[in-house]
Amino acid sequence: MITAGIDLGAKFVKVLFLKDDEVLARTQERAGFEPAEAAKRAFAAALSESGLTENDLDAICATGAGRQVSPFTRESITEVGAAARGTTYLHPSVRTVIDVGGEEGRAVKCGDTGKVEDFAVNEQCAAGAGSFTETIARALEVPLEEFGKLSLKSTKTIPMNAQCAVFAESEVVSLMHAKTPKEDISRAVHDAIASRIISMVRRVGISNEVALIGGVAYNPGFVDALERGMETKVVVPEHPEYVGALGAALTARERSK
Amino acid sequence: MAEDKKEFWRWKEYNWHDDTKDWKSAETITAGVDVGSVSSQAVIMLDGELYAYSNMRTGSDSPDSARKAMDWALEGTGLTLEGIHFIVGTGYGRVNVPFSNRAITEIACHARGGNMMYGNTVRTILDMGGQDCKAILCDERGKVSNFLMNDKCAAGTGRGMEVFADLLAVPIEEVGELSLDVEEEPPPVSSTCVVFAKSEATSLLRDGWSKKRVLAAYCSAMALRVVGLLERIGVEKDFAITGGIAKNSGVVIRLERQLGLKALQSKYDTQIAGALGAALFAKTLVEKKRKQAV
Amino acid sequence: MKANYGYMDGSGEYYITIDTDPCNDCADHPCVSACPVGMFEIIVDDYDDEVAAIKEENRKKVKYDCAPCKPVTDRPPLPCVKACPADAITHSW
Ligand code: SF4
Ligand code: SF4
Hints:
The complex is a heterotrimer of chains A (about 260), B (about 290) and C (about 90).
Chain A: E1 2-8, E2 12-19, E3 22-30, H1 35-50, E4 59-63, H2 79-90, E5 94-100, E6 104-110, E7 116-123, H3 130-140, H4 144-153, H5 165-177, H6 182-204, E8 209-213, H7 220-230, E9 234-235, H8 243-255
Parallel strand pairs in A: 1-4, 5-8, 8-9
Antiparallel strand pairs in A: 1-2, 2-3, 5-6, 6-7
Helix pairs in contact in A: 2-8, 3-5, 3-6, 4-6, 4-7, 6-7
Chain B: E1 14-17, E2 29-35, E3 39-46, E4 49-57, H1 62-74, E5 86-90, E6 102-103, H2 106-118, E7 124-128, E8 133-138, E9 144-150, H3 158-168, H4 175-180, H5 194-206, H6 211-233, E10 239-242, H7 249-259, H8 273-293
Parallel strand pairs in B: 2-5, 5-6, 7-10
Antiparallel strand pairs in B: 1-4, 2-3, 3-4, 7-8, 8-9
Chain C: E1 2-9, E2 12-19, H1 20-24, H2 31-34, E3 40-44, E4 50-54, H3 56-59, H4 62-65, H5 79-83, E5 89-91
Antiparallel strand pairs in C: 1-2, 2-5, 3-4
The complex binds iron/sulfur cluster (2 copies).
């Protein structure tokens, strides 16, 4: 059986084709203002990457904030459900999934079959999501990828007072004027966002292994801040940004059985 | 080029004093200094009447800003700092006003100042400052009965408006009027968060919206947001708005529309409410002190 | 006076309200030691009442600081609310 998962996130639309345990295609497109159009483009790209035609697909399932507008399918699963399903498929011993995207952060506690037991969401505030690091990296004029790595070089913990991405930007500017090293600022920023995510994780409880998914998982500074803050290792699956799409593809398969 | 990039959010600083009054014949001279995170004001009162004030940007150093605001209010009056009998500091930098005799929170000072500026029928005072927003319920003596403050989030503060003025390259003083110059009221920007609202605005512009329309959508979102805050304390008549945003007709008119309530007008400058209240507290305190001394 | 400490941001409204009139009559202020995070302090307010308040450093992050007391499911009574003999403390979330 071949199934497809479409994850219509706030910033990117991701498509994943799955056959048994093999991923046939992974593609993504910027969501822009027309997520449905972006989904069509990502889908077409996945078809050409895998050499399949639409008829080869047995089932399709959508997830993500824009799942209601998804073309191709009416089947859908919540982001929380897809995150839990996808993560436990890749790492069966994980019970706590942290999903941080550009515009929201989530913590999901799941059972051994990947069923959601509890979850907490922080959305609509950039201070608790990936946008926070982007805003600050821009203010510091450091490329985002480097900004995360910079944090690992820091040896000093300085507190950030602002709890808002906008106010934090001004705070960072004054730290720069005060000649604070960029790596220490980077660490302060990552610690700040991590502490907000961790408090959310604690509300669902930390049990067994913890995984981090979503685009922010590529940021080593953030992973490090999470691990230090929770005093536990954090598993980062391969292709962390596609875990939601994978969860959707798995759901499509299970539902059509 | 970065150097000649205009800073559209900058507003003008000013000072004023009443030439018709003579401080030499005053029995009690008091002052209030409100050191906010964005702007600082100093107010000088002669026997409980407004005599002089200043309004300027807060620098990086609170004591220094307090001093400068005070000096500027004194400018041209012939009066000196030593000639003032009692000074109350307020605002976020209130504990850093070196020459003050006491610090009182801006909430209490706003209520007290509002009571004088708008008369004692005022019950709800909304203060929209540069980096915060306060909602205050008070009684006929200007005593606070319920208050809340929002200084965590830039949405609903002057800072949020500055971000938009900058994005659209519109001088901050013109935002209000421009936003009202639309044929039809657009729906409010849907994101509360300034960061997300900014990307929303960028896409609206790309969709062909005019700057005015985007400003209208943001002013209306801001009004909506502030209504949410006010609902928490419960709005009672009469209602007044102070702080920098009181000068932004685009937000004020929409706010009045949403509340179904007109804001009181005052002959005083709305930005000095906190400092004025502080000067009034100073008067009470100095009189109390004198009584105790007798 | 109703003193609301906390904030509202894009994600919601988070206020801890202290009713200062009954609070002023409370002798021991047990809320101070009840809070595991130590968020409460006793202050003399602008009207010279001795009342409990949320510390400045906690006001902008009450949502995060209170998180351990507020698990998503099976939320127990909040320690601060339970400790207050005057029912002067309420949380908006
Ligand atoms: S606190 Fe800042 S980042 Fe959070 S919603 Fe408000 S403006 Fe956005
Ligand atoms: S809920 Fe818990 S952490 Fe929050 S104020 Fe009350 S006792 Fe303190």
